[in-house]
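Why should sequence recovery work at all? Because a backbone constrains its sequence more than one might expect. Tight turns favour small or flexible residues, buried strands favour hydrophobic ones, and helices have their own preferences. The token representation captures these environments compactly. In the example below, the structure is given first.
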């Protein structure tokens, strides 16, 4: 298992990058990323009670026209997502596709 508490720490697996990605380090509390695979990872994160974005842990695969097929070559792109947040507090789970 890969584990990091580095704010910009990450791990490559099967062409995907699992990224801790703590944006607002000056305001952020501790966060640790744990990954067994690009499709099996989680974070332990304790953040202060404020409304600013602190972290954006994610997994992504970078594809560009030089190294991969252009988006127009794909007839179907599928994805799955599952998330669980705390019972109380301010948080937002975001699913984002960037084309």
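From this structural description, the recovered sequence reads:
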């Amino acid at each position: 298992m890969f584990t990091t508490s580095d704010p910009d720490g990450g791990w490559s697996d099967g062409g995907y990058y699992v990224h801790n990605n703590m944006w607002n380090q000056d305001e952020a509390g501790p966060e640790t990323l744990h990954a067994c695979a690009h499709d099996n990872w989680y974070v332990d994160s304790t953040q202060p009670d404020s409304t600013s974005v602190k972290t954006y842990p994610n997994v992504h695969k970078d594809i560009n026209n030089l190294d991969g097929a252009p988006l127009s070559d794909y007839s179907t792109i599928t994805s799955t997502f599952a998330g669980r947040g705390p019972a109380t507090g301010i948080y937002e789970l975001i699913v984002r596709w960037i084309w």
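A few observations help interpret the result. The first strand starts at residue 2 and ends at 4.
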